[in-house]
User: Which sequence fits this backbone?
């Protein structure tokens, strides 16, 4: 940024613009900046002026004293100037909403008479012609909405009617392409936003840099939902296309980080709670051990899988039926997971059912595999907006895993311990550094817990951090599976049932008198003798008395 030039325009109160050229400017609340563009060509019929700031709202207006119908307020706002015949100069006014100075960037983009006019058929918002995209977000999803466009027309002409008909000579022929663009991961700086917002402001650069998520017709509702990625910057814009003239125009780009910059807790710089970090770090330590030694330490493996299976469904249940705080729910989930893990171990010890244990382990791996399938662009297909179609397909893919490995349970267990155990390391990393790989399972949880999440598009960025963490996950998975397969190839598939082994050993000791263990007292008697021995250590020694023997 040219700081000297920015301060010059701010002090002078005048910002000279050129069509299509971005200018950076500092705004304050008391002294509005007058933005002017001169020598407008006669073939230009519409100019869209826009201003962008990172987190603070700015006011953009046609008049020095803004009114509701002639101004817009927000971090990303713009106005449409419909040019009169012979008009060569346009003026707008800018100021910040807050008391401090706000760094912003502004640009004016021209359009011709055959280009559609974004927001030209606005019936919902305050401006008569509103090219803005309105965005709101939660921790779960992002919602954008906009006003329909109108057909272009010549200077001084009457705008085409918005409700004259639905034929090909009306606005109903227009199409809307919705684009998404991700900012660099783990970068919340203003400079980065100011440079990248330029890539999503004009039609050609939007098509070159953005990802087209969907196309809407005039019959569709003018609102779209996306999965929220707290802490990850994202820019949205819409290109309206007139197929008759093959002309296009862009709305005002809008950005969000799906988090707050000003909150003291859980702001954009520190999203993960301490309880989340403790929970997933501890789980990752156990998962890393299971990744390499799960099959050898069979009971630990069972506890790990039972913990994940129980904790997942218990968290869903307690979130659905209670209004407890997140920290309390996480603590209760950890307790429930421990109980579930111990229950699976106890079930194996008493009944020795490999089939039951492998069914649970197979479901855990199957759920992760199915989540990975829907994490790909396949998950954004319109057919999976239907919950019945989604859950039938998801469950079928998840159940396919234990079915395929029903004849080789040892391989299934080693695969599950390697892949699932290493993925817990990814979840732990996500508590400290942003990575899109965490949304493999998080999006599944969101869909279960939120009734309307099915309408959200779940595209995520895949940048340098994600490639590095994906490589770590792949390396851990392959290493864990390979080590276990080589070590266990000459061992028995599974240990004998502990309860049956203990029962046989007890019968052998009770009938074989030659076995030294046959003469070992029962456990209860041994504990009692041990306690007596400990008690004697603390008793004071009695003095010996002198006695004379009787004659």
Assistant:
């Amino acid at each position: 940024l040219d700081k000297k030039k920015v301060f010059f325009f701010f002090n002078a109160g005048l910002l000279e613009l050129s069509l299509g050229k971005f200018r950076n400017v500092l705004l304050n609340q008391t002294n509005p900046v007058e933005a002017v563009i001169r020598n407008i060509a006669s073939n230009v019929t519409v100019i869209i002026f826009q201003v962008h700031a990172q987190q603070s709202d700015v006011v953009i207006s046609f008049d020095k004293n803004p009114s509701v119908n002639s101004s817009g307020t927000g971090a990303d706002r713009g106005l449409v100037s419909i040019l009169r015949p012979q008009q060569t100069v346009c003026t707008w006014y800018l100021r910040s909403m807050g008391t401090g100075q706000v760094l912003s960037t502004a640009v004016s983009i021209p359009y011709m008479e055959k280009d559609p006019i974004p927001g030209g058929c606005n019936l919902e918002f305050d401006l008569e012609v509103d090219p803005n995209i309105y965005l709101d977000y939660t921790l779960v999803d992002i919602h954008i909405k906009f006003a329909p466009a109108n057909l272009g027309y010549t200077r001084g002409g009457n705008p085409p009617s918005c409700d004259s008909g639905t034929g090909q000579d009306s606005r109903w022929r227009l199409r809307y392409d919705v684009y998404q663009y991700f900012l660099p991961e783990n970068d919340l700086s203003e400079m980065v936003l100011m440079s990248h917002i330029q890539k999503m402001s004009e039609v050609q650069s939007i098509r070159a840099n953005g990802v087209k998520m969907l196309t809407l017709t005039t019959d569709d509702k003018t609102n779209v939902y996306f999965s929220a990625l707290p802490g990850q910057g994202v820019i949205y814009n819409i290109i309206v296309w007139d197929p008759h003239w093959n002309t296009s125009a862009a709305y005002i780009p809008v950005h969000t980080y799906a988090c707050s910059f000003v909150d003291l807790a859980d702001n954009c710089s520190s999203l993960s709670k301490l309880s989340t970090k403790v929970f997933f770090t501890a789980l990752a330590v156990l998962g890393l051990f299971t990744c390499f030694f799960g099959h050898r330490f069979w009971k630990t493996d069972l506890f790990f899988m039972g913990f994940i299976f129980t904790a997942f469904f218990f968290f869903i249940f307690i979130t659905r039926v209670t209004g407890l705080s997140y920290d309390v729910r996480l603590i209760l989930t950890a307790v429930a997971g421990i109980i579930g893990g111990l229950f699976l171990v106890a079930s194996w010890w008493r009944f020795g059912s490999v089939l039951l244990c492998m069914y649970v382990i197979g479901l855990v791996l199957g759920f992760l595999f199915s989540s990975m399938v829907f994490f790909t662009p396949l998950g954004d297909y319109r057919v999976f907006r239907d919950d019945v179609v989604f859950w039938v397909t998801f469950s079928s893919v998840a159940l396919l895993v234990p079915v395929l490995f029903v004849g080789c349970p040892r391989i299934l267990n080693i695969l599950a311990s390697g892949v699932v155990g290493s993925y817990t390391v990814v979840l732990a990393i996500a508590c400290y550094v942003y990575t899109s790989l965490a949304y493999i399972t998080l999006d599944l949880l969101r869909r279960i817990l939120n009734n309307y999440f099915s309408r959200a598009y779940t595209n995520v960025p895949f940048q340098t951090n994600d490639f590095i963490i994906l490589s770590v996950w792949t390396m851990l998975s392959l290493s864990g599976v390979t080590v276990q397969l080589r070590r266990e190839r000459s061992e028995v598939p599974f240990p004998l049932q502990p309860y049956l082994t203990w029962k046989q050993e007890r019968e052998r000791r009770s009938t074989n008198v030659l076995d030294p263990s046959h003469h070992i007292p029962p456990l209860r008697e041994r504990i009692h003798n041990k306690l007596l021995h400990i008690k004697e250590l603390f008793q004071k020694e009695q003095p010996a008395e002198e006695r004379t023997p009787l004659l």
Notes: DSSP finds 13 helices and 18 strands in the chain. The two ends are 118 Å apart (CA to CA).
